[in-house]
Amino acid sequence: MAAEVAEVANRCREGQSTRQLDLSKCGLKSIPDAVFFFFSETKPETCDFSQNVLKRIPAKIGQKFSQVTVFNMSGNCISELPTSLVAMTALSTIDLSNNQFSIFPEVLYSLSSLQDLNVEKNEIKEIGRASCRERV
User: For strand 20-22 and strand 93-95, is the pairing parallel, antiparallel, or unpaired?
Assistant: First the structure.
């Protein structure tokens, strides 16, 4: 366990200088509060939390990482997104592939700068009809 914590801390330190947070393949079950502490002054431009075992994304991520342009959450166990993602106004790319979404996340309709979206290999069976009607 100590080795995993040290690895996360090292990657956060590296991310502070590059503005590219890569916590992929760390075995994370949740995003530690320490990650937000590391980036309290220098905000990351890219976040990679892929290939972990995350079941949820903390609501504060939208506010704390509002300048992120690329957000990779592929290969986790996520089934919904927090509405706070609307605060990520610079977000242009999001990868949600290989997760457990069964309903298309409504918050994605609110991301006006979004250009690239990957939701492959999910079990999406429903797209929010209310949002679709608003767009027509």
Answer: unpaired
Nearest to 32 by CA among 51, 73, 60: 60
Please state, in angstroms and rounded to a whole number, the distance separating the CA atoms of residues 67 and 119: 22
Tens-digit pLDDT profile for residues 46-103: 999 999 999 999 999 999 999 999 999 999 999 999 999 999 999 999 999 999 999 9
Copy the structure tokens of residue 118: 């990957």
Instruction: Say if CB 68 and CB 88 are below 8 A apart.
Output: yes
Q: How confident is the model at residue 127 (pLDDT cuts 50, 70, 90)?
A: confident
